[in-house]
Design goal:
- The chain has 408 residues and is an alpha/beta fold.
- The protein has 3 domains: 4-150, Rossmann fold (3-Layer(aba) Sandwich); 158-298, no CATH class; 325-391, Rna Polymerase Sigma Factor, Chain: A (Orthogonal Bundle), CATH 1.10.1740.
- Helix content is 43%, strand content 14%.
- The chain contains 15 helices and 11 strands.
- The chain has helices spanning 14-24, 41-51, 61-73, 83-91, 109-117, 127-144, 153-161, 200-204, 213-221, 223-236, 274-282, 314-324, 327-344, 352-363, 372-389; strands spanning 4-9, 30-37, 55-58, 79-82, 98-101, 121-124, 147-150, 175-182, 243-247, 253-259, 264-268.
- The strands form 2 sheets. It has a 7-stranded parallel β-sheet with strand order 4-3-2-1-5-6-7, with helices on both faces. Strands 9-8-10-11 form a 4-stranded mixed β-sheet, covered by helices on one side.
- The protein is globular, with a radius of gyration of 20 Å.
- Bound molecules: nicotinamide-adenine-dinucleotide and magnesium ion (MG).
- Magnesium ion (MG) binds next to helix 7.
- Residues 152-154, 228 line the site of magnesium ion (MG).
C-alpha cells in the first residue's frame, strides 16, 4: 500500500468536503500536507484544526494574515502562505506526491500548471483549467513527468472504461465514440420554464448532485456539458466528432465508451462525488468511499434522450468553440465565468449567459495560442467584452492575468 501525501486546492468547496471525507476514512493511506482556498479563513482554520496540514494557503493575502494569527493563537504549527504564489508553492511542495485540483474557474490554472511542472499526480476536478490550458496544459503535464487523473464524474467513468495503458489515441484503442451523460439539469423536464425569469436559487437546485454554485448554474445552462466535451477532448486525445452527449436524467450511468466491435462499456454508481474521488486517490487500488451501494432492483428506470440543442444553446457554443481555433474555448470559458458571476449576483438574467458567450465568440480577436501569455490575453479580452455586453462595471471583467478569482 502506498501512503500518499496530498495538497488539496479548493479545500473549502464542495469537492474539498467530499475529498476530506474520503481521506479521513483512510488515515493510514493519506497524509494531508497542504490545504488551499480563496478567502474563507474561518473554514480553513477549522480544517487546519482537524487535519493539521504543514502548510495552508489563501489567495486573499488579508485573510491569510487573519488565518496565521488565529493558528498561532491556538498553537497550531501550520505555516500560512498567500496569493497566487502561495497556491503555486503548495501545488509543488517536494514532500507532496498528489495534488487534488478543485479550485473553481480559471483561477485554478496557475497552480495546476505548477503541479504539472513539478511532476505531481494531478487529480483534476477544475475542468476550466484544462479548457483554458488546452494543449499547453497537456504539454506541461508531459514535460514535467506528471500524471493527470480525472475527478469529474463523467471523465472518471470514461477513464475507468478505457484500456490500460491508454496512449491518448481512440482509433488505436478501437474506440468509436465517447458518450458523456448529462442529467439535463433542473430545467430539462420542465417545458414551462421562462428562462428570462429563472432565479439563481432555481438554477442551483440540481436534481441529483449537490455542488458549488458556479458548476450548478453551468449544469442548468448545459455549459457544464459543453466544458466537459472540451475537457474530454484534451484528456483522452479524442476528436470533437468522436465525443457525444446523451441525456440521462437519473445520473446513474456516469458515461460510456463504445468500441468498434459494438461493445459499450459504462461505469455506474450513485451520484456521489466520493466515488470518482476515491477511485483517483487510490488508483490502481480500490478503497471505501462512503458512497451508498447501488441497488439495481430499486432503480425502476434508466432513461436516455438526445439533448435539446435549441433550449440549451450553450452545448453547441462549446462544440463550435472547440472546432474554431485555440482561442475560442478560452474566450467561451471566460465569458461564461463573467456571465455566471453576474447572474449569481443578480446583475444578469439566465438568458444573458448564452447571449454574452455568443457575442464574445463573435467579437474576440485572439485566436493563436502558442504561449500561456496568449491564453491569458484571450481570457482578459473575453472578460472585457463580456463585461461590456452585460453592462457591468469594468472591475467585474477583471482578468485571470491580474490574479482575479471567480466566486467566493
Ligand atoms: P465550490 O464553489 O464549492 O468550491 C470552490 C473552491 O475553490 C473553494 O474552496 C474556493 O475557496 C476555491 N477558490 C475559488 N476561487 C479561488 C481562488 N481565486 N484562489 C484559490 N481558491 C479559490 O466549487 P466545487 O463545486 O467544489 O467545484 C470545484 C471545481 O470542481 C470546479 O471546477 C467544478 O467545475 C469542478 N467539479 C465539481 C463537481 C461537484 O460535484 N461539486 C463535480 C465535477 C467537477
Ligand atoms: Mg461532470
Amino acid at each position: 500500500m502506498t501512503r500518499r501525501r496530498l495538497t488539496l486546492l479548493g479545500a473549502t468547496g464542495s469537492i474539498g468536503d467530499s475529498t476530506l471525507d474520503v481521506v479521513a476514512r483512510h488515515p493510514d493511506r493519506f497524509e494531508v500536507v497542504a490545504l488551499a482556498a480563496h478567502r474563507n479563513a474561518g473554514k480553513l482554520l477549522e480544517l487546519c484544526r482537524r487535519h493539521r496540514p504543514r502548510v495552508a494557503a489563501l489567495h486573499d493575502a488579508g485573510r491569510a494574515g487573519e488565518l496565521a494569527r488565529a493558528l498561532a493563537a491556538e498553537g497550531i504549527a501550520t505555516r500560512v502562505v498567500a496569493g497566487q504564489a502561495g497556491l503555486c508553492e503548495v501545488a509543488s511542495l517536494p514532500e507532496v506526491d498528489t495534488v487534488l485540483a478543485a479550485i473553481v474557474g480559471a483561477a485554478g490554472l496557475p497552480s495546476s500548471l505548477a503541479a504539472a511542472a513539478a511532476g505531481k499526480r494531478i487529480l483534476l476536478a477544475n475542468k476550466e483549467a484544462l479548457v483554458i490550458g488546452g494543449a499547453l496544459f497537456i504539454e506541461a503535464v508531459q514535460a514535467g513527468g506528471a500524471t493527470l487523473l480525472p475527478i469529474d464524474s463523467e471523465h472518471n467513468a470514461v477513464y475507468q472504461c478505457l484500456p490500460s495503458p491508454y496512449a491518448r489515441n481512440p482509433a488505436d484503442a478501437g474506440i468509436r465514440r465517447i458518450l458523456l451523460t448529462a442529467s439535463g439539469g433542473p430545467f430539462f423536464a420542465r417545458t414551462d420554464v421562462d428562462f428570462d425569469r429563472v432565479t439563481p436559487d432555481e438554477a442551483c437546485a440540481h436534481p441529483n448532485w449537490s455542488m458549488g454554485r458556479k458548476i450548478s448554474v453551468d449544469s442548468a445552462t448545459m455549459m457544464n456539458k459543453g466544458l466537459e466535451v472540451i475537457e474530454a477532448h484534451w484528456l483522452f486525445g479524442a476528436d470533437v466528432d468522436r465525443i457525444e452527449v446523451v441525456i440521462h436524467p437519473q445520473s446513474v450511468v456516469h458515461s460510456l465508451v463504445e468500441y468498434v466491435d459494438g461493445s459499450v462499456l459504462a461505469q455506474l454508481g450513485h451520484p456521489d462525488m466520493r466515488t470518482p474521488i476515491a477511485q483517483a486517490l487510490a488508483a490502481p487500488e480500490r478503497i471505501e468511499s462512503g458512497a451508498a451501494a447501488l441497488d439495481l432492483a430499486q432503480l425502476s428506470l434508466l432513461s436516455f434522450a438526445r439533448p435539446d440543442r435549441e433550449r440549451f444553446p450553450c452545448l453547441d457554443l462549446a462544440y463550435d468553440a472547440l472546432r474554431a481555433d485555440a482561442g475560442a474555448p478560452i474566450a467561451l470559458n471566460a465569458a461564461n465565468e463573467v456571465a455566471v458571476d453576474a447572474f449569481l449576483a443578480g446583475r444578469a438574467r439566465f438568458t444573458d449567459i448564452p447571449r454574452a458567450c455568443r457575442a464574445v465568440l463573435a467579437r474576440r480577436s485572439v485566436t493563436r495560442i502558442a504561449h500561456i501569455d496568449d491564453a491569458l490575453a484571450a481570457d482578459a479580452e473575453a472578460r472585457m467584452i463580456a463585461g461590456s455586453e452585460l453592462g457591468l462595471p469594468s472591475r467585474s471583467g477583471a482578468s485571470l492575468a491580474a490574479g482575479a478569482g471567480v466566486m467566493q
